[in-house]
Amino acid sequence: MTIVSLAGKQSDEEISYDMETLAEVIAPAAAERMEEAKAGIVPEKHDHEHHIPEGGVKAWMTVAGAWWISSICFGYANAFGVYQTYYVTELLPSYSTSAISWIGSLQAFFLYSTAIVAGPMFDRGYCRHMLVAGSVLFVGCLFAQAQAQRDAYYQIFLSQGLGQGMAMGMLYLPGMAVVLQHFKKNSAVAIGIAFTGSSIGGIVFPIMINNIFNDVGYVWGVRAAGFYVLGATVFANLLIRPQYAPKHTQQPAPNIATFLKDPPYICAVAGAACVAFGLFFVYFYIQLYTLTRGGISQNFSFYTLAIVNGASIFGRTIPNIFADKIGITKVLMPMSFLSGALVFVMFGLHNVGGITIFCILYGFITGAYVSMSGPFFAAMADHMGEMGARMGLALALVGIAALVGTPIDGALLGNGPEYSWSRAIVFTSVMMIGGTCIMTVGAWLLAKKRGKWV
Question: What is its subcellular localisation (predicted)?
Fold first, then answer.
């Protein structure tokens, strides 16, 4: 009941007494707060408030778990170039390069697009459930893939493209988004460290699979990958610790319709989708490219993917340090532009030295782009409660572009043994550079909205 309502029932003397009593209670407390403010003392926060710890044992355990998730999601997906070459030459010789690339692009599509469901589920507290389900599905599909028969396209398509892609999607978004529950100020660095797992996986998988394919055969090469994924998922599930807000402090449920009315978000997602049309071209085709170029040995070709992924270790960490200091967009946009421009360099690659330098630079630059694109979309959230949904919708739309991008490249290349590399190179570069321009417009609109560059 307010002082005004009390006035209708009390005498003037009683009201005067109440006001004096209230002043005696409030004045000392207000004076104490003023003295604390002058002394620089920060009032202690209540236990029920949601804090982002910015470190600690659980936070770094979560980063370690996310590292394992990254190594088997993007790390394994980035090794598809090994399968592409093997399928074209050995396992699926009756199918075209474009048809085979649909397997890898479908895998990449579901890695991204599953996020449209995984994002809202993550916001509702189902992080652990998705991690466990994705782990079981991933391991099961790998061992099913190992049993595929020669020219049995549908078996590879279902186990590797569909099943593994959905499993990766169920692991990837919660595995990365959970890191942002533990870090805010240093989120880019934490995500960058977690993403180095994809670089290590991108080194281990191509070398391991190539060598086992040559020495033992296809079946045990895929099984070896399955055992690696099994161990990685066990470690990830043991290490990751979700940090959700208490029930009474949670933000309102996200409304996807509002995202589609947000110009900065729309431009950023559209630009990222264009970049995704060309992003996987090098990862899918660099091994085949070097195998079909004169003067390049087969042994060196097997290690090109490992070089790309090895260089991305530094790309996923060093630029992220600067991103936390000067803003994500000021680092992300130049890296995105350079990745598209660098593809044009493939016209001049004719020897081992040039290809090695290209692989190192491309791995570094695209490593930075991939590790910062997720935090970029998360930074567009108005509150923590819509972070997963923002990331999920963006990644789903990017996944559609990834689905059709590499098959388009395959169609432009044509059927071997002579491939039209120039058409695929131009398409990839133009899409990535154009996408970067659109993303930059989105970043500029976000800066106008927030009053500063994110």
Answer: Membrane
